[in-house]
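#structure-requests
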Amino acid sequence: MPVEAAHLEAAAVQYARLLQQIAGTPPVLDLIHLGLGPDGHTASLVPGDPVLDVTGADVAVTQPYQGRRRMTLTYPTLNRARRILWVVMAQRKPTCSCALRDCDPAIPAGRVCQDCALVVADRDAAQLL
């Protein structure tokens, strides 16, 4: 993703076009690798960001988070993937691990479809899941 571009909105559109060239229209990715942040964020989808409600684009620009604006795949793009691979470590986020397991929409990660998901977890997270 061209996150260092001077015009992030235009770069997001350009990246979405690239995804379409590679993975079809709408793009269907074979595998998306996601992590789970301590606040339940994933793929730069963070709590309270308006980008959580974007449904008309495959790629979007977020509000500042940890001092940076970011670019992310939107839920429609994530949820079309053939497989989601989660890597989850429980340290500092046991509540989020359970919310992910329960598909709890209160955290951004909980809104990612789990039908085709595989979770790789450390021992502590696995005990919670």
